[in-house]
Amino acid sequence: MDNIFSSYLKFDSPKSNKEGVIGYLLLFLYLMGVFPILAVPFSLPFLLAAIVPAALITCWGIIYIIDPYKYEKSYYLYLGVYGVVNTYVFFVSIQKMLYKNLEINGWAPFMFNIILFILLILGMNWMNWKALYSETYYKLQQKSSIPVGWASIAGVSYILGQIILSVVYTDSGISILMIVCLTLLSFFTAFLSINIHRYFFIRKHMDRALAIYPEFGLPKDERRGNEKKKRKRRKKKKRKKGK
């Protein structure tokens, strides 16, 4: 059990969290997710389906940009929900290209993609749970040789599904390439959804988390590094007064 805690309770600095939120929102959510939906031919229903959750997750993310130290404890919940939302936006973008750019018809491709989307999210979280309690994360951190073939099943099946769907319904090589690129990005954003489980795991074992990282969740002014800086400033001021 100690190996599970030590491997799973790893924290990035609040500063890194802040930079991550900015990068994820600008690069993955808007540039690679929403922007393709705005391309010709334009479709308002597809845009609304993507922009509403995108706007909500952006508003939520602002607090981690403004004060990443104060809201550090909830950051992992945000990151997990962001992963689901961004994967969904990629899903909408793919549907827009299939139905508007490639002009396919019928509900079959849409239903097929919904099933793939759900399986991808569930598959990633199942993979995370299995990796955690089988101590796979710990073994990876110890650089042990372990079998990881099962770990890519969810992502590979999603990618293959999108390729097959594109080939069946269109002969456009460029469209296939774009759909595959978005599918590959979906593999990454879906993986971020595992942070939802991580958030509740941290809350359940907060005593262990604080033992590993005592400053977890503390305001910036109360952290050791900032206290040391304050002490140095005070000493400098005293020296200047003494002179």
Give the terminus-to-terminus CA distance.
Answer: 58 Å
Low-confidence stretches: 144-151
Order of helices and strands: HHHHHHHHHHH
The average pLDDT is 82
Shape: globular
* Largest sheet geometry: none
From the helix content, strand content and strand pairing, which structural class follows? mainly alpha
Bin the strand percentage: under 5%
The total number of structural domains is 1
Radius of gyration: 22 Å
Strand segment tally: 0
Architecture overview:
It contains eleven helices and no strands. The chain has 243 residues and is mainly alpha-helical. Helices cover 77% and strands 0% of the residues. The protein has one domain. It is globular and about 70 Å long.
What labels would you give this structure?
transmembrane; mainly alpha; 0% strand; 243 residues; single chain
SSE arrangement:
Layout: H1 2-8, H2 14-38, H3 44-66, H4 75-101, H5 108-133, H6 136-141, H7 153-169, H8 173-192, H9 195-204, H10 206-212, H11 224-242
Helix pairs in contact: 2-3, 2-4, 3-4, 4-5, 4-8, 4-9, 5-7, 7-8, 9-10
Structure at a glance:
Residues 226-243 have a biased composition (Basic residues). The chain crosses the membrane at residues 21-40, 46-66, 75-94, 106-127, 148-168, 174-196. With 243 residues, this protein is mainly α.
